[in-house]
Amino acid sequence: MLATMQTKTMHMQPSEMANTMKTMDKLNSFGKITLTDAQRYDVCISVVEPELALFLNHPLTPTTYDQITPVLANAVLYAKAVTYAPGSAIAAQYQEPQQPAMATPLLGQFLVQVNGFVQARNETGLADWIALEPPFNEQYGAMIREIQSAYPRGSEDAMEKRCSSALKAAVEGDDGSPWTAFIKFMAQYLGYLRDVSADVNRYLDTYALLSELQQRANSALSHSTLGHLMLPVVVANAKLVCRLAIGLDKQPELIAHLKRSGGGGGGGGGDEGGARETLPERAANILRQAFVTCLNDRVSSLSAAGKPEGKKRGIYIIANLCLKILFQCRKTRNATQIFENIYNLSPPLLAYPKRERVTYLYYLGRFLFQNSHFYRAQLVLQAAYDESPARPECVRQRRRTLVYLIASNIILGRFPSQELLGRPEAQGLAAKFVPICLAIQRGDLAGFKRHLDIDRGEHAEWFLHFRILIQLRNRCEVLVWRSLVRRVFVLAGQKAQDTGGTTRAATLDIDYLVAAFRKLEDAAAAADDDDYVDPDFEGVDYGDTGEELRVDQAGVVSKLASLIDQGLLSGFISYKLMKFAVTGTRAKGGDALAAGFPAVWAVLGGRAERSEGSGGEVPGWKKKEGGMGGQRAGPGMVFNFSSMRPVGVVG
């Protein structure tokens, strides 16, 4: 030992060397050089933390002494004393160790590892070490039993002190800024391990534990320089919160008592506060805190390769989890702020992995569709569909995107091809959408209403499930009107006539249209054999014959005026002659059909581009670096989702 000390002691002051020698002699005077297996277990497992085993097997030298703190050196002394001389004065001197620390060797080892990950800035290792989803493996199970024994409920302060003493790297922090929020997260995490259960009947309790843990994780994420180490943990926990919130929303019997007691699953509401915050909404709001933290990170940016770094890596993956919850529980109005924030503050979407791009564009497309902005919806959904890999494992995702993409295009007058409907992800979609397309092409008002009838439509339940039935009914009916007017014009319209120096416009007698609309509406009424009468009104005679409900000349004129106003017909109504006259025939080379009935897709698409004046930009879809989607701010550059006009609406 003296030989070993020679190099080290050359750098020590005499007094320091004397103290070191005295301490080592004192430590090495107890017990044998090595321990038996039984003694190893008693000391290393029951008394001293496992990381001290190396020092228990050998006499202390200046090198090993410098590697451990005086506290750990005293622990070695105590361990040897109680093992070999339990009645000695030295053993009595150290008879008051912290019992929780001494009784939890696995927990101590776990915290040492976590501290090492923080010290090494190893976020992957930290995420792997923080297991979240039960059931846990046997090693974690043994540690959980230690926690339950040493730190029962109510001892959270002691558990936080234990974490604070073990996580020195977090206490020291970075650049003089301690990472206190991480210590609190770890204490909360240990409490989560202690209390969580895989029992399905306790899912609500699990949700509450995960929500509290998510909030602690969000706080730890907000540290300016070390917070990025928590990003994988935040994302992993957020996925569990998302999955559990959606699962509970689908099983209302598990949260029925919350609704009965007025809890609503998440506070808020009541007589004074308006609508209650539902459990999924609360989950989305908790995740939104992490989203905002990632979005507002000023430290990280894009790498030289154009990829996000630091906390900005989490922007879209956390946003997608929030959107998944909101769309599942049908609270999509709350998604507006997410899209606006991303459009103004996020790096370009193209910088992120394809899976995140596809998912985000899918939800943005659905949001635009639900807000009746179908042209922009099809732009976004087409991009999501094109980027989604055509692999068997992606069929479900591609199918869901395709449903809204086809619906958006049909509303805009563009129908799916047979090639598209023959793809694996489109199996069965032809039976739902082709009858709508045929009804629009033929002007078959009766067939159109029958197929999209809420009560008797063959596929009405399917359309309602995807929340596209009302949009198809309301938006596509005007296209059926247009096709019906065109069919009647072909059969009974008067061609343009050249009378010397003037050209008389091609016209159509409105009475012919009245007859056509009446015939088709009568056919639709005949198919509706529902004679149900509410019992409260049974036998009441209102004196009506039903004739007043039939379409008349004024109704047809109103339909024509609407079609002309939307640009779907080109012409005017002669109220004196009660005729519809086509304009622009000469410009179309004498083709009255081409002049009077412009292509629907060109009309609605062009109107959308002109009305927005955005050059193809879609609010929420960040394509370029900089604020407001990368555009230069200026007059007319305020994008507000709540005020967007639906396609075809004037004013």
TrEMBL record:
<feature type="region of interest" description="Disordered">
    <location>
        <begin position="609"/>
        <end position="631"/>
    </location>
</feature>
<dbReference type="GO" id="GO:0003723">
    <property type="term" value="F:RNA binding"/>
</dbReference>
<dbReference type="GO" id="GO:0003690">
    <property type="term" value="F:double-stranded DNA binding"/>
</dbReference>
<dbReference type="InterPro" id="IPR045114">
    <property type="entry name" value="Csn12-like"/>
</dbReference>
<protein>
    <recommendedName>
        <fullName>PCI domain-containing protein</fullName>
    </recommendedName>
</protein>
